[in-house]
Specification:
The chain starts with a strand and ends with a helix. Helix content is about 35%, strand content about 25%.
Length: about 240
């Protein structure tokens, strides 16, 4: 579904990504792991059109997205859960969710998406009229997930979904992602929490200093000594 072909991305003279290539098959869950500053968020921004490429291509469902602006990419069936959630804190939960249906294509594709999201997150149905900024961090992450899912996207891209959350909340978030995976949604998860991300993924890629250093089936990456040492402090 998604093909990233030898992309370079730079901020001014500083190169942030070098020759990154990876694919996300239709229906798969793929983890992109790496420490803070490895380039995960830059890659997410490039996929979603928020950061221009210096070279290479990003192809989604056979379409080269090079000339497609960020605000048009959701129309192709892509949705983002950004790092830090990026909600509108004074708007209600329900209005934040409705922002995921901001264009005609998203509304047409939704097919009961709002009802599906409220089934996934019953708490959001209870808190629909509450200002999003008054929710806990975990509850806000549910809103951010719901906003991305309400349009029934073909590809869900998540940037650090566990960031800043208590361990018990992280477990809840990844349990929800497992349920979403079961619905057939294709996912790319950029995440520092190696154990959580790889445990629910089909394949994984390790990003370090803007380059891919390892790519393998997720269950193989989980037991590689060098990966465990880098992300779990274990040999």
């Amino acid at each position: 579904m998604l093909e990233i072909e030898a992309i370079d991305v730079a901020y001014g003279e500083a190169t942030a990504l070098r020759g990154v290539s990876l694919s996300v098959p239709d229906g798969a869950t793929v983890a992109l792991i790496g420490s803070n500053g490895a380039g995960k968020t830059t890659l997410v921004k490039a996929i979603m059109g928020m950061q221009p490429l210096r070279s290479g291509r990003i192809v989604f469902d056979g379409h080269d997205l090079s000339g497609v602006s960020a605000h048009q990419r959701p129309r192709h069936g892509m949705a983002l859960v950004p790092e830090g959630r990026r909600l509108f804190p004074t708007m209600s939960v329900r209005d934040n969710l409705r922002l995921g249906l901001h264009d005609r294509e998203s509304r047409a594709r939704s097919r009961g998406g709002m009802e599906w999201v409220l089934e996934l997150f019953p708490l959001l149905a209870e808190r629909g009229g509450q200002a999003a900024g008054t929710l806990s961090g975990g509850e806000q992450q549910m809103v951010a997930l719901g906003r991305a899912l309400v349009s029934r996207p073909r590809l869900l891209v998540l940037d650090e979904p566990s960031l800043g959350l208590a361990p018990v909340v992280v477990d809840t978030v990844f349990d929800t992602l497992q349920a979403i995976r079961g619905e057939g949604v294709t996912m790319l998860i950029a995440e520092q929490n190696m154990q959580a991300a790889l445990s629910m993924s089909d394949a994984g890629h390790v990003l370090a200093d803007g380059q891919l250093t390892l790519s393998a089936p997720a269950d193989e990456l989980l037991v590689m000594p060098e990966v465990r040492a880098a992300y779990l402090g274990a040999a």
